[in-house]
Design brief:
By secondary structure, the chain is mainly beta. Among the domains are: about 5-55; about 90-130, no CATH class. It is about 5% helix and about 35% strand. It has one helix at about 75-80; strands spanning about 5-10, 15-20, 25-30, 40-45, 45-55, 105, 110-115, 120, 125-130. It has a five-stranded antiparallel β-sheet, with no helix packed on it. Strands 6-7-8-9 form a four-stranded antiparallel β-sheet, with no helix packed on it. A hairpin with a 2-residue loop joins strand 2 and strand 3 (about 25-30). The mean pLDDT is about 85.
């Protein structure tokens, strides 16, 4: 079993870097997701005991004080950082201009989900996983 400092890449492309003990994440470590997000945590027997998720654009998720796109402030993170677009220019997603979403699909953050086939593909339309 894996033990000590190292890295491990999961079949989804997510990479773990940090301490391992008896084949499990243990101590300080970081998950790096294919979409650019990272989750730094302290692990115990493969389970995070405390940690912080940072999105690819630098936005840090805070469990208790989450003010991003909530009921009080509906701006996207790019609008918070760069300001609102001029009147008449709508920003429909955090990306501007938004991605082209295939007909009948949904943007799930790491790819497109097709409810007809129950398949999730990445933004390059390569298979990610079945739902």
């Amino acid at each position: 079993r894996m033990h000590g400092q190292g890295s491990y890449t999961l079949p989804t492309g997510t990479e773990y870097r940090g301490s391992l003990r008896d084949g499990m994440f243990e101590g300080e470590g970081e998950l790096r997701f294919p979409n650019g997000g990272t989750f730094r945590a302290v692990w115990h027997r493969g389970v995070p005991t405390q940690g912080k998720y940072t999105f690819a654009d630098g936005l840090e998720y805070e469990d208790n004080k989450w003010h991003y796109c909530d009921g009080y402030d509906r701006r996207f993170y790019t609008e918070i950082c760069s300001g609102l677009k001029p009147a008449g220019v709508a920003q429909l997603t955090n990306l501007h201009p938004p991605r082209e979403i295939p007909r009948g699909c949904y943007d799930c953050g790491d790819g497109f989900y097709d409810p007809g086939t129950r398949v999730l593909v990445d933004y390059e339309l390569r298979f990610l996983r079945n739902a």
